[in-house]
Amino acid sequence: MKVIGDPQKLAKITRQISCKGKSIGFIPTMGALHPGHLSLIKQAVKDNDIVVVSIFVNPAQFGPKEDFKKYPRPLKKDLALCRKAGVDLVFLPAEKIMYPQGYSTFVEAGELGAKLCGISRPGHFGGVATVVAKLLNIVAPNILYLGQKDAQQAIIITRMIKDLNFPVKVKVMPTVRQKDGLALSSRNIYLNNEQRKQAPVLSKALSLAESLVAGGQRDAARIISRMRQLIEKKKQAKIDYVAIVDLEKLESIKKINQSCLIALAVRIGKIRLIDNTIISV
């Protein structure tokens, strides 16, 4: 496994690999790797000749009051996990390499980036889209692997790839959960013992929604109301949003008569957690 910090060097290597007819799978990460990331790597290893993982805590997607400086950076552990999982190349750029002095070009996430998480995190998805666009230009992969847990992010990146004509296929892999249903996230380490006990309420609310739909309920407002009632029973839970939206434009729907995304963001104490499920009718 090679660790590379120079984008031009990595681009040269990946182009040479592609010229030999070998396929490249790519997983962009901010590090603090967990089994969710490893599931993406495992699939990429299965699908491709070469696997590239980037580790870069992207400042452009953090707001001024968010946890950029505190975001976990266990680099030695991350590199060991990549090596064990069969990663061939790790891209580990410095911030000044990705955003040098005078940098001024950004990708806009449009209407998709202004909904759901974008309401409480303005500019977040523009930062995500920008860094992913840069990484795709550097790595030039055949397949990009994303996690379903970040559903809005996956939808926005998929749309960007289509709109900007990136020649890459997107594979969105299922959310990996702990035994009690909590979706794996690098931010879970911030939870104290009591908060950790309350955090699975997100997945329980989604399971409730799934059971209501399976039982014939189609009124989105009633489902959201039941979900909110369940979450609000937890003392440290503060709802950011609970929404049922279509899968293309992320617009709210009143009746569930098509496949849709049920998504929520909840603060457990000060820790903001997200989760979702896709309902097929």
Structural commentary:
The chain is of the alpha/beta class and 281 residues long. The chain folds into 2 domains: 2-173, HUPs (Rossmann fold, 3-Layer(aba) Sandwich); 186-276, Pantoate--beta-alanine Ligase, Chain: A,domain 2 (2-Layer Sandwich), CATH 3.30.1300.10. The protein is 38% helix and 20% strand. The strands form 2 sheets. Strands 1-4-3-2-5-6 form a 6-stranded parallel sheet, with helices on both faces. A 3-stranded antiparallel sheet has the order 7-8-9. It is globular, with a radius of gyration of 19 Å. It starts with a strand and ends with a strand.
What fraction, in percent, of the residue positions are helical?
A: 25-40%
The number of domains: 2
User: Mind describing the biggest β-sheet?
Assistant: 6 strands, parallel
Query: What is the distance, rounded to the nearest whole angstrom, between the alpha carbons of the first and last residues?
Result: 44 Å
Overall mean confidence score, pLDDT: 97
Backbone shape: globular
Strand order of the largest sheet: 1-4-3-2-5-6
Q: How many runs of DSSP E, i.e. beta strands? A: 9
